[in-house]
Amino acid sequence: MPPKSSVPPLLRPQASVMLSRVAHSLYWMSRYIERAENLARLLDVNLQLLLDFQGFTQEGVEQHWDSILLASGDEEQFEKHYKSTDSRSVTEFFAFDLRNPNSILSSVYAARENARMIRDQISLEMWETINELYLYLHDRTSEEIWTTGAAEFFNNIKRSAHLFQGLTAATYSRNEGWEFIEFGRYLERADKTTRILDVKYHILLPSATDVGGAIDTAQWQAVLRSASALEAYRRFYVREILPWKVAEFLIFSDSFPRSLHFCVAEIDSYLRRILGETGARPRTEAARLSRRLLADLQSLNIADVLQEHGLHEFLGEAQKTLDQIGEEVVQTTMFYPAESELGEQQQQQIQQQ
Questions:
Q1: DSSP 25-66
Q2: Do 62 and 86 form a contact (C-beta atoms < 8 A)?
Q3: Range with the poorest average pLDDT among 144-153, 210-219, 286-295
């Protein structure tokens, strides 16, 4: 039986128009493509950072990758299957490991499965692009990546994801399905932006003298590059890269499409359409959470965050709120259990292939 909804039917007009399984598949398809692209960019940037600073000690390399595992929330899953934390093992875990439901391969496979289930609801161009990305990944191994170059591999994933999103924008009708696609994309993007920024929090510098030094500056620059924000940041601030300015830009910019503020504004807009929230006063918990988070991002500044909340704590609360919003929408509009994660049998089938 489908879960009971806490939202009365009159607040969910879209449910009578679009089948819940279609909405669910569109939502997860969009989220997983966005997730794969974000992971590819994060791994690419941090591998390049280690190449630029080859003087890192073994302890420094482990600390560097530990920060990414902690920010992603996947450190326990990683420790179950890997004995050491280094570039090869972390890249394998985030790129190809099907035991990690958030790896690039797992994400693309889940996105493809959701697209396959609603093949008649999406354009031919969308299906071909997502299928080609899956086949490209399926034919690669971690050994091949290290032999031929990781940068080109990750660039291909990013290009394919951008192509898919561009074709979706160009070929998908602006109906209720589009609202679920965009809602999923911005929800995933907002979450990943907070985690990318939170990576720096987990990098414990050996001494206060390192703050503002070459490595510190390079790390903050890597944070910007991980969000494809370096050029946009420099056009906005012009001056040198400063920690509080980076945090301010990625959290509060209302014009950069990957900032938390911009994403939450889009989430709130599509959420109201999906849940039928036409009035000024929110009637659903998801809408209340969204409106509250957006109001905080409109009223606070970086000084408020650093002095009253703490950057790590603020980002953690934002992640929790985004999770609650997504869960509420899934429970109230998407009853059909569409493919969102790989089952054990599916993992074995892909590994055998």
A1: HHHHHHHHHHHHHHHHHHHHHHHHHHHHTTT--HHHHHHHHH
A2: yes
A3: 210-219
46 vs 65: CA distance, rounded Å: 8
Hey, what are 180's tokens? 């679920």
Q: By the 8 A CB rule, do 253 and 229 touch?
A: no
Which letter does DSSP use for residue 120 in this model? Answer: G
Give the per-residue pLDDT at 322.
98
SS3 7: coil
For residue 87, count other CB atoms closer than 10 A to its CB: 17
This prediction has a pTM of 0.87
Helices (H), 53-149: 58-72, 75-81, 87-95, 104-117, 124-138, 142-148
The two tokens of residue 322 are: 């985004």
212: left (phi over 0), alpha (psi -120 to 50) or beta: left
Q: Do 177 and 23 form a contact (C-beta atoms < 8 A)?
A: yes
Q: Which residue, 227, 166, 187, 247, is CA-closest to 41?
A: 227
CB 31 within 8 A of CB 184: yes
Q: What are all long-range contacts of 10-16, with beta carbons under 8 Å and residues at least 24 apart?
A: 10/276, 11/275, 11/276, 11/277, 11/283, 11/284, 12/275, 12/276, 12/332, 12/333, 13/276, 14/176, 14/179, 14/273, 14/274, 14/276, 14/333, 15/333
- Can you state the angle between helices 104-117 and 20-52, rounded to 10 degrees? 160
Nearest to 346 by CA among 195, 134, 185: 134
Rounded Cα distance between 71 and 78, Å, is 13
pLDDT one-digit tens code per residue, 161-183:
999 999 999 999 999 999 999 99
Instruction: Tell me how far apart the alpha carbons of residues 329 and 301 are, in angstroms, rounded to a whole number.
Output: 29
CA nearest to 10, candidates 238, 219, 235, 276 = 276
User: Measured between alpha carbons, how far is 225 from 215 in angstroms, rounded to an integer?
Assistant: 15
- Nearest CA among 199, 189, 34, 184 for reference residue 107: 34
